[in-house]
């Protein structure tokens, strides 16, 4: 139950290899913050720095207004759930969950009560006397979560907790975590994942990490609807947003862009007269494309179709090295090899110059 | 023929014979007995696969039964005969042995050895493995501690004879005593405690073995469980004793029992250091006292040793097997 404040935090290994720099982040009590980013972007490292498992090379980390850079992990009031569960294999579920309290020399009655309560919350009551090896993956992860609940921490840290589970279990456990958060609205949680579905569904705010720093912070829908850069635009959403090069030919409350391929895009992103002739990338999400009759943003021949049932994905020729992708609701058979014209609602057309969104200039 | 040539010839015949056996028998199996052609193609391949393990295991099984099982039975029978081996005396050798002071001393000393040496070697091995784990020069330290493993027991005993030497200019114990103005003593003649001075030698040799195995086991512990314990607030001692040691318990038992079995076989140290005098006799050296002079007695002692080692060995094999799973 705490606020977290990261100021100018950085991480270097061996004094020369810089992994993270200039991380500024304010986390309010009760938030569920998700760190996402491509692999190797340092999201786990950042979490481990908050946990105290990695030293903070520069800047300060405050929990509840107190600088904790040099406070050992156990005294920071945090609990962590690991990707590999990290259960103690030689201890029963009960012993696993009570270990921290035993170390802290809490009275036995208090330990028992805390364990029972957590076990009930996670439906682990029948398994308390089993060893971890006698549990399924999902149950193990619940024990790991129970182990942190028992400690009643200020901040929960989750390091890719669902990556070791199979697809069906992952969805079920994701919903369990969402329900857990609802039962404990006061608790602050930080969650690292590379799975955007987890990020979109669980987060109150998402932190996109890239290039050693924070690319954008916002609610899931903010990131989806108004990404501040091409990187965030393409990272959030699947398949990734299409980027088509063009030149601004009309400015004002709405902006008109003539595309290199001959199409014309109208966007609700406002521009001023100085922007006329500017080289931009027009961004359209595959799901925002609709088929057009006369005016089109893009037209091409369908090279591959993927029928997923609820949607049909259309793959066109490559632009800037990536195939243009359209996503149509429902089943559309027989489109392969045909010529298709696509357009989009001006409210859903993004404009980027030099990688940055024109909305965020 | 010169011994060198003889040695080379032996190696050539031995290794060549092995290759010839495995290659030749495999060839006969595949080409002559179960050839993979015609109608029985698939069935013959399966049959050959079933026979092959026995074919390849045969030399080992044969040698083991010839040189292990036969001697065990032979020894037991010999132990039922008198000194010259021509009169059957039943359990006479055993009865006489158990009534003797020398055997009782050897037996009790051996119990002491079997308790102290494996415990000490495993403990020090574990300690060294943990302490050198994160050090940059840890590998050099480990190599040095492992080195006594390469020395024969007699060689090690000779080294320690110098360590325990009476002359303050040679023995370190008496050098220290001399520095404080005390008269030199012969530690190998102090009753009862001299046993421990002999055990030190075997601990010195075996710590390296325990260290190597336990160090590998410690590295196999998932790092996350240690990190979880750090977050749970455990201090380094609690992490070591409550998280790490329980996770390598199986390996510790294997190391412990392996050294126990070794302890029950070593006679060289006692033989070379005291010759069994000053009440330092242990069972294997006690056996050596009778060997070639009263084979009935010697085989009886050997049989007692085997009966003691057997349960430890079975436990050891069981543990090692469950470790592999």
UniProtKB/TrEMBL annotation, chain A:
- Key word Plastid present: no
Q: Which UniProt keywords apply?
A: ATP-binding, Cell inner membrane, Cell membrane, Membrane, Nucleotide-binding, Transport
For molecular function, the Gene Ontology terms on record are: ABC-type maltose transporter activity; ATP binding; ATP hydrolysis activity
Q: Which residue intervals define the domain ABC transporter in the entry?
A: 4-236
Entries under InterPro entries matching the protein: AAA+_ATPase, ABC_transporter-like_ATP-bd, ABC_transporter-like_CS, ABC_transpr_MalK-like, ABC_transpr_MalK/UgpC-like, Mo/tungstate-bd_C_term_dom, NA-bd_OB-fold, OB_MalK-like
Record-level GO cellular component terms: ATP-binding cassette (ABC) transporter complex, substrate-binding subunit-containing; maltose transport complex
Q: Which family does it belong to?
A: Belongs to the ABC transporter superfamily.
Question: What is the protein name for this chain?
Answer: Maltose ABC transporter ATP-binding protein /trehalose ABC transporter ATP-binding protein /sucrose ABC transporter ATP-binding protein
Which organism is this entry from? Thalassococcus halodurans
Automatic annotation (TrEMBL), chain B:
**Record carries keyword Magnesium:** no
Q: Which InterPro entries match?
A: MetI-like, MetI-like_sf, UgpAE/MalFG_permease
- Entry's CDD domains? TM_PBP2
Keywords tagged on the record: Cell membrane, Membrane, Transmembrane, Transmembrane helix, Transport
Per the database record, which ranges form the ABC transmembrane type-1 domain?
107-316
Query: How is this protein positioned relative to the membrane?
Result: Multi-pass membrane protein
Q: Which Pfam families match?
A: BPD_transp_1
Instruction: Write out the annotated subcellular location.
Output: Cell membrane
Report the transmembrane regions from the record. Answer: 6-29, 50-73, 111-132, 144-163, 196-218, 252-278, 298-317
Question: Which Gene Ontology biological process is one annotated for this entry?
Answer: transmembrane transport
Gene3D superfamilies this protein is in? Answer: MetI-like
What does the entry list under GO cellular component? plasma membrane
Family as reported in the entry's similarity comment: Belongs to the binding-protein-dependent transport system permease family.
Q: This protein is called what?
A: Maltose ABC transporter membrane protein /trehalose ABC transporter membrane protein /sucrose ABC transporter membrane protein
Q: Which organism is it from?
A: Thalassococcus halodurans
């Amino acid at each position: 139950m705490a606020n977290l404040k990261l100021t100018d935090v950085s991480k270097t290994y061996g004094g020369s290899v810089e992994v993270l720099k200039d991380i500024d982040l304010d986390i309010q009590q009760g938030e569920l913050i998700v760190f996402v980013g491509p692999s190797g972007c340092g999201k786990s490292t950042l979490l481990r720095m908050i946990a105290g498992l990695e030293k903070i090379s520069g800047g300060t980390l405050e929990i509840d207004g107190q600088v904790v850079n040099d406070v050992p992990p156990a005294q920071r009031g945090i609990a962590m759930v690991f990707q590999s569960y990290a259960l103690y294999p030689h201890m029963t579920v009960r012993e696993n969950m009570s270990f921290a309290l035993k170390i802290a020399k809490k009275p036995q009655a208090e330990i028992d009560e805390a364990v029972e309560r957590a076990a009930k919350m996670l439906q682990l009551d029948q398994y308390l006397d089993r060893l971890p090896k006698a549990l399924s993956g999902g149950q193990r992860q619940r024990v790991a979560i129970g182990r942190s609940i028992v400690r009643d921490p200020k901040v929960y840290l989750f390091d890719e907790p669902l990556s070791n589970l199979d697809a069906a279990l992952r969805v079920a456990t994701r919903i369990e975590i969402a329900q857990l958060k609802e039962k404990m609205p006061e608790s602050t949680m930080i969650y690292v994942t590379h799975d955007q579905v987890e990020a979109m569904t669980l987060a109150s705010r998402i932190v996109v990490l890239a290039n050693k720093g924070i690319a954008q912070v916002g609610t899931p829908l903010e990131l989806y609807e108004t990404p501040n850069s091409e990187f965030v635009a393409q990272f959030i959403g699947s398949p990734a947003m299409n980027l088509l090069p063009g030149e601004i030919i009309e400015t004002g409350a709405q902006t008109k862009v003539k595309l290199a391929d001959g199409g014309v895009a109208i966007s609700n992103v406002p521009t001023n007269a100085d922007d006329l002739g500017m080289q931009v990338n027009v961004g359209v999400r595959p799901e925002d494309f609709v088929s057009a009759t006369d005016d089109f943003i893009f037209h091409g021949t369908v090279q591959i179709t993927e029928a997923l049932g609820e949607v049909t994905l259309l793959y066109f020729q490559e632009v800037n090295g990536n195939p243009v992708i359209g996503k149509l609701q429902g089943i559309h058979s027989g489109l392969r090899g045909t010529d298709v014209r696509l357009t989009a609602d001006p409210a859903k057309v993004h404009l980027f110059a030099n990688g940055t969104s024109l909305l965020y200039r | 023929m010169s011994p060198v040539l003889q040695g080379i010839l032996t190696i050539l015949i031995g290794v060549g014979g092995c290759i010839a056996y495995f290659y030749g028998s495999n060839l006969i199996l595949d080409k002559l007995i179960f050839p993979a052609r015609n109608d029985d193609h698939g069935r013959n391949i399966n049959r050959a696969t079933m026979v092959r393990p026995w074919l390849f295991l045969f030399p080992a099984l044969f040698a083991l039964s010839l040189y292990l099982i036969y001697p065990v039975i032979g020894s037991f029978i010999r132990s039922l005969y008198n000194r010259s081996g021509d009169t059957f005396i039943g359990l006479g050798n055993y009865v006489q042995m158990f009534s003797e002071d020398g055997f009782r001393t050897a037996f009790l000393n051996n119990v002491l050895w079997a308790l102290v040496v494996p415990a000490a070697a495993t403990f020090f091995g574990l300690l060294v493995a943990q302490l050198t784990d994160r050090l940059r020069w840890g590998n050099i330290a480990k190599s040095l501690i492992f080195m006594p493993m390469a020395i024969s027991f007699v060689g090690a005993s000779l080294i320690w004879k110098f360590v325990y030497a009476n002359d303050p200019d040679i023995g370190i114990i008496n050098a220290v005593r001399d520095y404080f103005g005390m008269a030199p003593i012969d530690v190998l003649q102090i009753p009862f405690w001299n046993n421990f001075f002999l055990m030190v030698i075997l601990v010195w040799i075996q710590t390296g073995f325990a260290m190597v195995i336990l160090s590998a086991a410690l590295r196999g512990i998932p790092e996350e469980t240690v990190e979880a314990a750090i977050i749970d607030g455990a201090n380094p001692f609690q992490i070591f004793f409550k998280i790490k040691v329980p996770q390598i318990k199986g390996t510790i038992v294997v190391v412990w029992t392996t050294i126990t079995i070794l302890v029950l076989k070593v006679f060289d140290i006692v033989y070379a250091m005291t010759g069994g005098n000053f009440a330092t006799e242990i069972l294997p050296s006690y056996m050596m006292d009778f060997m070639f002079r009263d084979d009935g007695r010697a085989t009886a002692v050997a049989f007692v040793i085997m009966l003691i080692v057997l349960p430890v060995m079975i436990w050891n094999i069981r543990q090692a097997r469950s470790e592999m799973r």
